[in-house]
Specification:
Length: 605
C-alpha cells in the first residue's frame, strides 16, 4: 500500500487485441504510455504495439488479473499493508509475462515508488493522508498541500505550500494560480508566478512541480476541510482519419487517452480543473478566560522593544518613539502599543510599517513611529509599553512589556528682557491721566471714578434753529468741496496698498512663495509646513534678535500668546511633519497667507 506497479500489454501481429483497460475491483488502472513499432524484413511487415498502465491498489490483498487477451495467462499481484510485491503465475516477484501464439503478451512491474505519496485518481472518495498526491483522472496533473499543522485557532495564520504537478508533454499550460475552495478559510494573495520550480518522478513518470508559498488562516471554529484547485490545459490525442486499426471504439478510447501522444493521430487541447485531496482541520475558538483588555487579535509568537531617536532634546523640539513587534503570526492584527496621554509630553498618532522576513509576510518586524514633543524641561520619563497576543503552542495569552525610557529635556532659549528705562517709561505713562482731562476728571480718574457727563458753561443766545443761521448756510458748499478731497484720499490709500503689496512680494521671497504653492498643489503637507515654518522662523528671528533655531513653539507661545496665528502654525507644522496628517488645498492656501502676513509685519516693524 502506498506504492504503484506498472502493467504493460504487448500485442504483435497485424491486428491488435480488442479490449480496454482491465477492470479489477480494488485496483485502479491509469493509462500512462503507448508505443507502436513497425518493421519490414525482406518485404514482410511486422507490427508490435504496447500500452502501459499505472496500477494503484485501494486495499491490501491478492489480485488475479485475467482476460487481458486471447490466450494470455492470468497475472497475480499481491498487495501487502506495508508495501507492494508483484508476482505472476510463472513465479517472478517483480514482473511476469505470458503469451499465446503471436496474439500478444503482458508484463506486470511492482515496487514502483512514488516518493511516498498515494495516487488515487481512480477512486477519489477514499481518504488520503495529509500531503498526499491525488492524480487527475488522466494522470496529467495533481495539486497537493503542505501544512505544518491541522489544528488551528480562529485568526491564527500558518504557512502553507501549494504544489501543482504537471506531466511533461501532456499539460500544455497553467491557466491561473491555485484557488481556495471554501469559505471557512482565507488565503493570502498568490503571486502570478510560482515561487519555486522542481522536477519529481512519480510512478516512474516525470512531473514538473510548481510551488507557491502562502499563509492560510481560519475564520470560524469547527471541524472543517478545504481543497485547492487549479485550471490547466491538457493535450488530448485525436484519431487520424483512415487509421483502420482504431475502428473498434474501445481501442480508440484507449489510444485517445490524454495521458500520451502517439503514432495514431494528432492532438487537441482541452481545459480541465485539478483539485487537491480534502485537508481536514480542527479549528478552535480563542478562549475568553484570561483575555487581556489590550488584546487586538494577534496570534503567534512575538517580541516587543522600544527606543528613542534622541535622549537629549530641547523643550518644544520633536523626538520619535519607535516601538518594534517582531516574530511570526498574523501581523495584520498587530496594533500599536501607543503611549496615549502622558504628562509633560504632546503625543501624535503613530505611523506603522511592516518589514517581511519572507515572501509570505508570516515572519517579520512591524514598527510604529510615534512623534512626541516635550512641553516641560527636566528629566522626563516615558512609561513602559505593553503588547498582548495569544500563543497557540502554549494555548494561553501572553503580555509583553518594554523598559521605561528617560529623556533629558533642556529649557527653551530665554528671550531678551525689556530695558529698564523702557519699563519705567511705560509704568509712568500708565499711571498718568491724559493731558486733556479736566482737573475734576483727573481727580475722579485717580479715585477710580468719572462724572456721568462733562459740565458745560455755554448757553444759546437765539431761538433760531442752527441750520437757518448764516454760519451754517455754507455747509452744502463744504460738502460739495469734500467729494474731490475724499476721492484724492481714496486714491492715495489705494496707492499705499499697492506699495504694501509690493513690499509683501519683496519680503516673501519668490522661491519661498513658489515652494509653498507647489507643495500645496501636490498635497505635500510635510514639505509645505517645513518651508512655512522655516520662513517664519527667519522673519521672527530678525525681529527678536535671536538665532532662528531659538524660535520654537515654546518661544512663540510666550511672546505672541497661545491664540496667535504663528503659534497655531508651529503646532500644526509639528503635527503635519511628524504624524502624516493630510490637509485640503484650501487649508494650505490659508496657512500660506499667514506666512506672507507674518513676513510683511516684520518688514513694516
Amino acid at each position: 500500500m502506498g506504492e504503484g506497479a506498472e502493467l504493460t500489454i504487448i500485442a504483435s501481429g497485424d491486428e491488435l487485441p480488442r479490449m480496454g483497460p482491465p477492470v479489477i475491483p480494488g485496483l485502479d488502472f491509469v493509462p500512462v504510455g503507448q508505443s507502436r513499432r513497425i518493421e519490414s524484413v525482406n518485404g514482410v511487415t511486422h507490427a508490435t504495439s504496447s500500452v502501459t498502465y499505472e496500477v494503484t491498489p485501494r486495499q491490501a490483498g491478492t489480485y488475479v488479473i485475467s482476460g487481458l487477451g486471447p490466450g494470455m495467462p492470468a497475472l497475480t499481484l499481491k498487495v501487502d499493508a506495508g508495501g507492494v510485491n508483484g508476482s505472476s503465475s510463472g513465479g517472478a516477484n517483480s514482473s511476469a509475462a505470458g503469451s499465446a501464439g503471436s496474439g500478444g503478451g503482458a508484463s506486470g512491474a511492482g515496487n514502483a515508488p512514488n516518493a511516498g505519496n498515494t495516487s488515487n485518481a481512480g477512486n477519489p472518495s477514499i481518504p488520503l493522508p495529509p500531503g498526499a498526491t491525488q492524480m487527475s483522472a488522466n494522470g496529467a496533473a495533481f495539486v497537493r498541500l503542505r501544512l505544518p499543522t491541522h489544528e488551528l485557532y480562529v485568526g491564527q495564520s500558518v504557512p502553507v505550500d501549494i504544489e501543482v504537478g504537471t506531466r511533461d508533454g501532456v499539460v500544455a499550460s497553467l491557466n491561473g494560480t491555485p484557488t481556495l475552495n471554501g469559505d471557512a478559510f482565507t488565503l493570502d494573495k498568490l503571486s502570478p508566478q510560482p515561487d519555486r520550480r522542481s522536477e519529481e518522478s512519480i510512478g516512474g513518470k516525470p512531473y514538473t512541480v510548481f510551488t507557491w508559498h502562502s499563509v492560510l488562516a481560519a475564520v470560524k471554529p469547527g471541524v472543517l476541510s478545504l481543497t485547492m484547485q487549479t485550471p490547466l490545459t491538457v493535450r488530448v490525442q485525436t484519431q487520424r482519419p483512415g487509421a483502420q486499426f482504431l475502428d473498434d471504439s474501445n481501442l480508440a478510447d484507449l489510444f485517445n487517452d490524454p495521458a500520451f501522444q502517439g503514432f495514431f493521430g494528432g492532438s487537441t487541447e482541452r481545459d480541465i480543473t485539478v483539485s487537491s485531496p480534502p485537508a481536514n482541520f480542527t479549528v478552535l475558538e480563542l478562549p475568553a478566560e484570561g483575555k487581556p483588555k489590550d488584546f487586538s487579535g494577534a496570534v503567534g509568537k512575538f517580541t516587543l522593544s522600544a527606543e528613542l531617536s534622541e535622549h537629549q532634546v530641547t523643550e518644544g523640539d520633536p523626538v520619535t518613539l519607535r516601538m518594534r513587534v517582531s516574530g511570526e503570526g498574523n501581523f495584520d492584527r498587530v496594533s500599536s502599543p501607543t503611549l496615549g496621554s502622558v504628562e509633560n509630553w504632546k503625543t501624535y498618532q503613530p505611523t506603522a510599517k511592516f518589514t517581511s522576513a519572507d515572501n509570505t509576510e508570516y515572519r517579520g518586524d512591524k514598527t510604529f513611529d510615534e512623534p512626541l514633543v516635550a512641553t516641560a524641561p527636566g528629566k522626563q520619563t516615558l512609561p513602559s509599553l505593553s503588547f498582548s497576543y495569544f500563543d497557540p503552542d502554549a494555548h494561553r495569552y501572553e503580555t509583553l512589556h518594554s523598559a521605561p525610557l528617560t529623556v533629558d529635556v533642556a529649557a527653551a532659549p530665554a528671550t531678551a528682557p525689556p530695558r529698564a528705562e523702557q519699563t519705567a517709561s511705560a509704568a509712568a505713562a500708565a499711571s498718568m491721566p491724559p493731558a486733556s482731562m479736566p482737573a475734576a476728571a483727573s481727580k475722579a480718574h485717580a479715585d477710580g471714578l468719572r462724572p456721568d457727563h462733562a459740565p458745560s458753561n455755554s448757553y444759546g443766545n437765539s431761538i433760531v434753529p442752527l441750520y437757518f443761521q448764516p454760519a451754517y448756510l455754507s455747509v452744502p458748499t463744504l460738502v460739495i468741496l469734500a467729494f474731490p478731497g475724499a476721492w484724492a484720499w481714496l486714491r492715495r490709500r489705494e496707492r499705499r496698498g499697492q506699495q504694501r503689496s509690493d513690499v509683501t512680494r519683496t519680503v516673501a521671497p519668490g522661491w519661498l512663495v513658489g515652494q509653498l504653492e507647489r507643495t500645496a498643489a501636490s498635497g505635500d503637507a510635510s514639505g509645505f509646513f517645513h518651508a512655512a515654518r522655516s520662513g517664519v522662523q527667519s522673519a521672527l528671528a530678525t525681529r527678536w534678535q535671536v538665532p532662528p533655531e531659538a524660535v520654537n513653539l515654546a518661544t512663540v507661545n510666550a511672546r505672541l500668546g497661545a491664540e496667535s496665528d504663528v503659534r497655531r502654525l508651529f503646532a500644526v507644522a509639528d503635527e503635519a511633519i511628524y504624524s502624516g496628517r493630510r490637509f485640503a488645498r484650501s487649508e494650505l492656501e490659508n496657512w500660506k497667507g499667514v506666512v506672507v502676513r507674518t513676513m510683511h509685519e516684520e518688514t513694516v516693524s
